[in-house]
Amino acid sequence: MSFEWRTKKLEDVSINLSNRRVPLSSRERQQLKKVYPYYGAQGVIDYVDSYLFDGEFLLVAEDGENLRSRKQHIANIARGKFWVNNHAHVLLNNDESDLYYLYYYMNSIDISGYLTGSVQPKLSKANLNNISIVISVA
Length: 138
Known about the structure:
About 20% of the residues lie in helices and about 35% in strands. It is of the alpha+beta class. The strands form two sheets. A six-stranded mixed β-sheet has the order 2-7-5-6-3-4. Strands 1-8 form a two-stranded antiparallel ribbon. The longest helix has 10 residues, at about 100-110. The radius of gyration is 16 Å and the shape is globular. The protein starts with a strand and ends with a strand.
């Protein structure tokens, strides 16, 4: 079997589930049991008593200084049952990609051309979906 490398848009090799995110204020979270991870742009920021996602997903920061400085990964894999606020995009690989390849790829490329905002960098859903990704096809 031979493979060739092609450039595609991220939206062609993943399923963006960001519309399922629900932010909770710190006041709302204070009144909840601490059971399931609550993710923000850079990982777990709290725990809550319910979950929105169950499985293995790629979380990509939507905003924050780290999108430019890259002091930490901009993409992380979340497993199990968890909640995501509106500061991290939620992606699932489709049959054309591998979740771990997407994870490594997103953390290794320059995304500066996809960012907006001069003070607070932002990676919109539309810009995330338009990121070019090199992927092998059979």
